[in-house]
C-alpha cells in the first residue's frame, strides 16, 4: 500500500534567485508534505551540485536566473538523477515557454501568476503523480502534435527577419543593421515592424528577451 502523501519523506530542491519565492514555496510544501526535506539555492550551478550530492527527488526551479536561463541545465539535472521530477515555477507565459521546458526535461510548468489555491493543487499533483500540466499546457501539447513550430515563436520569422532580430538583440540600431546587411534603412524599419507584429511584441526589450530565451540557448 502506498504511503499517504502527508507521511512521505521527500527531498526537495527550491531553486530561485528570490528568497521570498523559495520561502513561500517552502510553506506550501511543508503544509502538504510535513516530513519533506528542503534545500534552497539561488544559483543554477549549485542546483546541479545539490542534485548530484543530496539525493534530490523533486526540484522546483525558476526559468530565469541572473546567470542565464535554466533550460540548458535540465538535461544535466536529469543526467545526475534520471528519476528527478522537475517543476518549472516562473513568471514567463505558459503559452510561449512551457513546451520548450517540457521538451528539455521538465515534468511540469506552473505560472507564478497562479492563485494560491492553484499553486497548492499543482504541488499536490506534482508530489502525487510526479508531474503537473495545467489545462493550458495540456492544450498546447495537443496542438504541438499538429504544429511543431509552437515550440518557438521565432519559427514564424523568415530567415531575413530572424537575422535582423538577432542584430537588434546584439544592440545594433537601424542604420548599423542597414549598413551591415547592405540594405536601405527604411527596409530595416519595415522588417522590424513585421517582426514585432509576428511576435506580438511592442519593444526591443521584449525582442531581446525572446531571442535570449528561444535562440541563444
UniProtKB/TrEMBL annotation:
Residues of the HTH luxR-type domain? 150-215
According to the lineage, what is the superkingdom?
Answer: Bacteria
Q: Which residues cross the membrane?
A: none
- Keywords attached to this entry: DNA-binding, Phosphoprotein, Transcription, Transcription regulation
Q: Which residues form the Response regulatory domain?
A: 11-127
Q: Does the keyword Chloroplast apply?
A: no
Q: Which Pfam family, just one, is annotated for this protein?
A: Response_reg
Residues bearing the modification 4-aspartylphosphate: 62
The entry lists its GO molecular-function terms as: DNA binding
InterPro entries with a match to the protein in the record: CheY-like_superfamily, NreC/VraR/RcsB-like_REC, Sig_transdc_resp-reg_C-effctor, Sig_transdc_resp-reg_receiver, Tscrpt_reg_LuxR_C, WalR-like, WH-like_DNA-bd_sf
Name the PROSITE patterns for this protein: HTH_LUXR_1 (PS00622), HTH_LUXR_2 (PS50043), RESPONSE_REGULATORY (PS50110)
Q: Which Gene3D superfamilies match?
A: 3.40.50.2300, Winged helix-like DNA-binding domain superfamily/Winged helix DNA-binding domain
GO BP term (any one): phosphorelay signal transduction system
Q: Which PANTHER family match?
A: NITRATE_NITRITE RESPONSE REGULATOR PROTEIN NARP, TWO-COMPONENT RESPONSE REGULATOR
Q: What is this protein called?
A: DNA-binding response regulator
Native species of this protein? Chryseobacterium artocarpi
Amino acid at each position: 500500500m502506498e504511503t499517504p502523501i502527508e507521511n512521505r519523506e521527500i527531498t526537495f530542491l527550491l531553486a530561485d534567485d528570490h528568497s521570498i519565492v523559495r520561502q513561500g514555496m517552502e510553506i506550501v510544501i511543508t503544509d502538504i508534505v510535513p516530513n519533506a526535506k528542503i534545500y534552497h539555492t539561488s544559483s543554477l550551478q549549485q542546483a546541479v551540485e545539490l542534485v548530484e550530492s543530496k539525493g534530490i527527488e523533486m526540484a522546483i526551479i525558476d526559468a530565469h536566473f541572473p546567470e542565464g536561463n535554466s533550460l540548458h541545465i535540465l538535461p544535466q539535472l536529469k543526467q545526475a538523477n534520471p528519476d528527478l521530477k522537475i517543476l518549472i515555477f516562473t513568471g514567463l507565459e505558459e503559452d510561449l515557454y512551457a513546451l520548450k521546458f517540457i521538451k528539455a526535461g521538465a515534468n511540469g510548468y506552473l505560472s507564478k501568476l497562479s492563485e494560491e489555491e492553484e499553486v497548492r493543487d499543482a504541488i499536490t499533483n506534482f508530489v502525487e503523480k510526479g508531474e503537473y500540466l495545467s489545462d493550458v499546457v495540456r492544450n498546447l501539447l495537443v496542438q504541438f502534435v499538429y504544429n511543431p513550430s509552437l515550440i518557438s515563436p521565432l519559427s514564424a520569422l523568415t530567415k531575413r527577419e530572424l537575422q535582423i532580430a538577432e542584430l537588434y538583440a546584439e544592440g545594433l540600431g537601424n542604420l548599423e543593421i542597414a549598413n551591415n546587411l547592405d540594405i536601405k534603412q527604411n527596409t530595416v524599419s519595415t522588417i522590424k515592424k513585421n517582426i514585432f507584429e509576428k511576435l506580438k511584441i511592442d519593444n526591443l526589450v521584449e525582442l531581446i528577451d525572446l531571442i535570449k530565451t528561444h535562440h541563444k540557448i
